């Protein structure tokens, strides 16, 4: 019953989520960080607190996966997380040197919404959801431990180390956006 209610609410709110967008052409890195963070907070606000993603980690992964929004997939497909499109009949962009297809999004925030959905439903991220639930219930926030569960997101064996480094850089360089781990988690009342 709870899943059906969440799905219904999400469908009702989708027009509001998908029309939220951003540009990053004047101050590209700062605007990219603010845009991804804004999309993440916006989408998080429509889902139950235990299912929300960590805002600063969402931004860190978008930076790593899209090279600050400069990759071909980011520029031509609004795909900031390398999300694959398994169905060749759906909108996609094909990689130049392989048969890999990534999803094509009309708006930038749709990529963020799909990333959050992926973390919330894919069997690959069960460890992530279990750790997030534990941290939500105990209110004991351990970003490093949560990031460690994202090791299946990429084939790079150093991926979680890189996510942690970018997360720390974001929290250091953008303290106005990511003041504390509690705010970065966006687990309810903090944002």
Ordered list of secondary-structure elements with their pairings:
Layout: H1 2-18, H2 28-44, H3 55-66, H4 72-77, E1 92-94, E2 101-103, H5 108-121, H6 126-138, H7 143-148, H8 159-173, H9 181-185
Antiparallel strand pairs: 1-2
Structure summary:
This protein has helices spanning 2-18, 28-44, 55-66, 72-77, 108-121, 126-138, 143-148, 159-173, 181-185, and strands spanning 92-94, 101-103. It has 191 residues and is mainly alpha-helical. The chain has a two-stranded antiparallel sheet.
How does this model look, in words?
55% of the residues lie in helices and 3% in strands. The chain has 191 residues and is mostly helical. It has a two-stranded antiparallel ribbon with strand order 1-2. β1 (92-94) and β2 form a beta hairpin. α2 packs across α3 (55-66), α2 packs across α5 and α3 crosses α8. Mean pLDDT is 86; it is low at 1-16 and 181-191.
As a whole number of angstroms, the C-alpha radius of gyration is 16 Å
Main sheet record: 2 strands, antiparallel
Distance between the termini: 27 Å
| Mean pLDDT across all amino acids | 86
Total count of helical runs of at least 4 residues: 9
Shape label? globular
What tags apply to this protein structure?
9 helices; single chain; 191 residues; mainly alpha; disordered C terminus; disordered N terminus
